[in-house]
Model the fold of this input.
Amino acid sequence: MQTRKINDFPEGFLWGASSAAFQCEGAAHEDGKGLSVMDVRKIDPSICNFDVASDHYHRYKEDIALMKEMGLKAYRFSIAWTRIFPNGNGEVNQKGVDFYNDLINELIRADIVPIVTIYHFEYPQSLIEQYGGWLDRRSIDDYVNYAEFLFKTYGDRVKYWLTINEQDHVVHMPFRLGLSNDDRQEKEKLGYLANHNMCVAAAKAIKKCHEIVKDGKIGPATCFTMMYPTTNDPSDMLAWMDAMEIRNYYLLDLNCKGEYNPVFRRYLEDRNMMPEIHEGDMELMKENRPDLLAFNYYYSESVSKFPLDDEHKIGDIEFKLLPSREAGIYQVVKNENLKATLWGWEIDDIGLQCSARLLWERYHLPLLITENGFGNKEEWPEDGIIEDEDRIDYLKRHIHNVKEAMNLGVEFIGFCAWSFMDLISGHSGFSKRYGFVYVNRDEHDLKDLARRKKRSFYWYKETIANNGKDI
Ligand code: BGP
Done:
């Protein structure tokens, strides 16, 4: 619906930007940090490793000064589990604890609200070696112990907490569970076992947060991919409904309602993938609801039917980054109405509004955008600055749709763009940049890592200053 008047953003709306430890900090082997699955995974040698990243570990004061100059209200970042507990459990590494104390204090001095992700992909390698990581229930206690330590150490200053970033990606990407990426289809079952354990762990962490952090707010940070039925063929509509349940809602139903929704349960049972549920697990999830629902949104997908036939049997899945077609359910197809980024991510600002309205309707929890941004190849010109008009346009349109959703009653806490500075893309190295701030390095040449403000920096600064009035 097009509304007549778009209300202004409320006072106190958290205009923010995001990062993740392994993608920006660097110092991967410094000051006692232990290895994570992101440090040991095998990556394409044409893509840089994560050892130096954007060198935020050594330059965080300079970066926060830039955030302050921009007028940022919130900074969403993650804590590297293995800086705090190098082995994932056991001994605490004081230097790691000090680093995040300093970072948080610097943010608070700059009037920037810290939003902390407890676990953003970098699972401790040692826990994989000790007992197989998330596939074993001991992982629940180790995660909760780590989260409890964070609440006790930083909870006097950090009031916004995110349990697990994009758990749905961890489920479908074996390397994030410390497994090889071969036979991904076979590993789906393990992914759903890990999923269950992560949901139990997250519910326990929510309970601890509520006990320990005064006025603390906590919730999951999921990746929500808006989907559309490709045609008005009723079978495409059915494919869409099923895909939404098993690709988007399955996890949030567990996190926010403590339920395996019936479509997802049937999906798992038909494929012999239902994990064992221990006594008390579901009650625990039901009793410890999140206070907010954070989500990352980059693109949408169109789906159409994908019938079973002689070649395609129940359980046949094909993958791109994530599952892209499942026999008897759905397949992702190109959306002819949308343009895409260089990496084929279909740009869809209206999809953000649709996502927000669906999430609000289903869970009725305040929403927080933890990631939204435009990845591009960029080089600093000899004269002038990077004129990243595409990024500005992308963000403007997406933020406008946040406003539209709010105007229709959806409650939003804030919007965090991905990312504050250029950092290593999860899959495409340093050649895919997202930042408002350019970091002067290439894929393998570290150059001087100097920070430079792109045009979007000034645009976001103005947007924050006038509280999104012109959007
Ligand atoms: C999300 C992750 C981020 C970030 C972002 C962009 O899935 O939470 O860590 O990487 O996507 O993705 P990419 O870096 O692959 O472009």
Q: What stands out?
A: The first strand starts at residue 14 and ends at 18. The CA atoms of residues 250 and 350 lie 23 Å apart.
